[in-house]
Design brief:
The structure holds 2 protein chains of 2 kinds. Chain A is of the alpha/beta class. Chain A has 26 helices and 12 strands. By secondary structure, chain B is α+β, with helices and mostly antiparallel strands. Chain B contains 2 helices and 5 strands, in the order E-H-E-E-E-H-E. Chain B starts with 10 loop residues before the first strand and ends with a strand. The chains are: A alpha/beta, B alpha+beta. Chain A: This is Ferrous iron transport protein B.
């Protein structure tokens, strides 16, 4: 199958475009060489697959996440690359475009955010741009899907590789030809691209090159070339010299194809930021937003739906199943496994599905509106005081949904030690699975203020995480070198329903799947343990195997005040999946 | 003067980035920010918190410690 890659800067609408171009079917696989997930979807037209590369500014990676793209280009040459370009930030975006053009595979540009550019008085002559770069340029609005059909059409026609080339000046060109001569016909990549990436300091490319050219020779060539550059007095390093040469050409291209007129439209993003990032209001407003999210999730909306679902499961569903099983003449064993095991076990967890989806919906809303990046900025002061980074706050918030994607989101943190620290602490965040346990306890032990109770449990987990972060960062994860914190603050946008629903589902589907597999199986096993005992089947609950196991470990929990066998057994099953604690309790107390 | 001394809402030209952490410098370069760029301070968070800045219509955030090492001149 043909493989097409989707590449572009972060925050350019890449994920929107990916969703628009692919059928809902997609799978997640591992990249060769690195254990990072990749998203692959089937194109709406024809039988090609579309690979979604992480957002990058340059092919020279700075974080692990960015390394994925260059590894992909080195290992699995795509037949075509779709490069999504933010029309309102053309100069910066074209830096990546040029590197992709040098890569040598056919390329197609999806020019996004032309509307935003227009509102800033930037008019792009896309025909001229296409001619100057030697590749097709299709204007799109990824969020609404406009122009996506044309992208698919263009992909069907064969796109030929561009002949675009930059003259990097005599010194660089000489170094390129030295490498080219040494490589002869060996590697299946464009030699020129390899050479330029190497001279720009791309470690991944250098490692690959050392298979053909001894490393000492490479180092020598690099140092010699850098010395010659320094001698000219034009630049202090080789990478910045190449960057400048490339940037000059990009500026010339923009000069020829973009018309800018002074336009003084109101900048809404700055107006909103003046309030949301206000030195006095910023953090209180953030806490208020989080409080509202929790109120919606637990008090106002979520618990109502959950109660109704609970009523539906314990009423019509249970009654219907009882009737059905009785009419079929099922044995009491089967009846018991279905009604007491599966319905009360899986059902006890399923009633939390509405709350979990509501929480994910709001997290998606925060992400898509652009507020999430501001949260990282607001939290950086606090996070840096415990040796972390404002960006670590985002994996932690995602960790509220599920720890696994939370840990995966830590990939965007550049500094290795901060990344490790974030990964170590993310599991302390109260994920949705624990939410079911909290909600159960809050409902069982507190008659009012339940959402406040749950919120304070969440805050407690954050405080614990921060204290541990301080401990870790001042002991075995101590680092003297300073961490990097540069975060893009994208313009605020009104989130689109389609994007919100899709991203909510993406986050929440794992929970539903788990309910159907782990929790289903766990419920049956726990029921069986409670149904059977040394004396046979259908025994008294406190004569069952479960009671024996629970009793054996109960003394361990005596010091913290819950030394009964029910609690011991519930905790044990929590190792399987935290939600199962709830279903164990449902079965035990049934 | 340094970027950290700039008044909120004012614009200045970056004259020296050599003092900052190389990782940060590389990331700024990725965003198209280098010596000569015009930078504007939108916001400064309290207690030496982060800075919200703007270059070429794009907003981004930076730490106080970094802003202190960026030399700028008001033009």
């Amino acid at each position: 199958m043909k493989s097409i890659a989707l590449a572009g800067n972060p925050n350019t609408g890449k994920t929107s475009l990916f969703n628009m171009l692919t059928k809902s079917y997609e799978y997640v696989g591992n990249w060769t060489g690195v254990t990072v997930e990749k998203k692959v979807g089937k194109l709406k037209s024809g039988d090609a697959e579309l690979v979604d590369l992480p957002g990058i500014y340059s092919l020279n990676p700075l974080s692990k996440d960015e390394g994925v793209s260059i590894h992909y280009l080195m290992n699995e040459m795509p037949s075509t690359i779709i490069n999504i370009v933010d029309g309102s930030l053309l100069e910066r975006n074209l830096n990546l475009t040029v590197q992709l053009l040098e890569y040598g595979q056919p390329l197609l540009i999806g020019l996004n955010m032309v509307d935003i550019a227009k509102s800033r008085g930037i008019r792009i002559d896309q025909k001229k741009l296409a001619k100057l770069l030697g590749v097709p340029v299709v204007p799109i609005i990824a969020r609404t899907g406009s122009g996506c059909d044309e992208v698919l059409d263009k992909l069907d026609q064969s796109v030929s590789p561009s002949t675009f080339q930059i003259d990097y000046g005599e010194i660089i060109e000489q170094a390129i030809s030295v490498i080219d001569a040494r490589l002869e016909a060996d590697p299946p990549y464009h030699h020129r691209w390899l050479a330029i990436q190497f001279l720009e300091g791309n470690q991944v490319v250098k490692d690959k090159l050392s298979a053909w050219i001894p490393e000492e020779d490479l180092n020598q060539l690099y140092d010699q070339t850098e010395k010659r550059i320094k001698d000219t007095g034009e630049s202090h390093s080789l990478p910045s010299y190449i960057y400048k040469a490339r940037n000059e050409r990009i500026k010339a291209i923009i000069g020829d194809s973009v018309h800018v007129e002074q336009n003084s439209t109101t900048n809404w993003t700055e107006k909103i930021d003046r309030i949301l990032l206000n030195r006095f209001l910023g953090i209180p407003l953030f806490l208020a937003v989080m409080y509202l999210v929790f109120q919606f999730t637990f008090d106002w909306l979520g618990s109502q739906i959950s109660d109704q679902l609970d009523g539906f499961l314990s009423g019509p569903v249970s009654d219907g199943l009882t009737w059905l099983l009785t009419t079929c003449g099922a044995s009491s064993f089967i009846k018991s496994v279905v009604l007491e095991g599966i319905v009360s076990g899986v059902g006890g967890v399923l009633v939390f599905v509405p709350q979990i989806f509501i929480l994910f919906f709001f997290i998606s809303w925060l992400e898509d509106s652009g507020y999430m990046a501001r949260i990282a900025l607001l939290m950086d002061r606090l996070m840096s005081s415990v040796g972390l980074n404002g960006k670590a706050f985002i994996p932690m918030i995602i960790g509220f949904g599920c720890n696994v994607p939370g840990i995966m989101a830590a990939r965007t943190i550049e500094h290795p030690k901060e990344r490790l620290l974030t990964i170590l602490l993310s599991p302390l965040m109260s994920c949705s699975a624990r939410l079911t346990v909290y909600a159960l306890f809050a409902a069982a032990f507190f008659s009012s203020h339940q959402s406040l109770i749950v919120l304070s449990l969440y805050v407690l987990s954050i405080v614990t995480a921060l204290l541990l972060a301080k401990l870790f960062s001042s002991t075995f994860l101590k680092h003297e070198d300073q961490s990097a914190f540069v975060i893009e603050l994208p313009p605020y946008r009104v989130p689109q329903w389609r994007i919100l629903l899709r991203s909510t589902w993406e986050k929440g589907k794992g929970f539903v799947r788990k309910a159907g597999t782990f929790i289903f199986g766990g419920s049956v096993v726990i029921w069986l343990l409670s149904y059977s005992g040394p004396s046979g089947f259908d025994v008294e609950m406190n004569q069952s195997f479960l009671a024996i196991i629970g009793n054996a470990i109960a003394p361990l929990f005596d010091p913290i005040g819950f030394g009964n066998w029910q609690a011991g057994a519930s905790l044990l099953t929590g190792f399987l999946a935290k939600e199962v604690v709830v279903s164990t309790m449902n079965i035990n107390d049934a | 003067m340094t970027l950290s001394e700039l008044e909120e809402g004012l614009q200045a030209r970056i004259i020296d980035l050599s003092g900052i952490n190389p990782l940060v410098r590389r990331r700024l370069l990725d965003l198209g920010i280098l010596e000569g760029s015009m930078i504007r301070l939108i916001h400064r968070l309290p207690l030496r918190g982060a800075f919200a800045l703007e270059v070429n219509h794009q907003e981004f955030g930076l730490r106080y410690a970094e802003a202190k090492r960026i030399e700028v001149e008001v033009v």
